[in-house]
Write a structure and sequence with these properties.
about 90 residues; Methane Monooxygenase Hydroxylase, Chain G, domain 1; 3 helices; metal ion binding
Length: about 90
């Protein structure tokens, strides 16, 4: 397994652990603000995870498509990225 994939999987396992911790907090009727602080930390961790995935995609697939000879592939990759960000901004 390459280092990047290993790091991503470790991040996901950490996030999973934090989600389980929040679940326990809810089960134990923890203070609401404390729960919100934890879910915000989880969101930041997911945002960082997504940034790492995006960086890999931009440095790999997107760069290859843009440098390639197929204009349809370039358009497809750009359109795909735009769709992801449009979906994200609509949440």
């Amino acid at each position: 397994m390459n280092t990047d994939k290993h790091q991503l999987l470790n991040r996901l396992k950490t996030i999973e652990g934090h989600v389980r911790g929040v679940q326990r907090m809810v089960e134990d009727d923890a203070y609401c603000v404390d729960i919100i602080k934890q879910t915000q930390a989880i969101q930041r961790a997911l945002d960082k995870f997504n940034s790492l995935i995006l960086a890999g995609h931009l440095n790999g697939c997107v760069t290859t498509a843009i440098r390639g000879e197929d204009p349809q592939e370039r358009e497809r990759v750009v359109s795909e990225l735009l769709q992801v960000f449009e979906t994200t901004s609509n949440l």
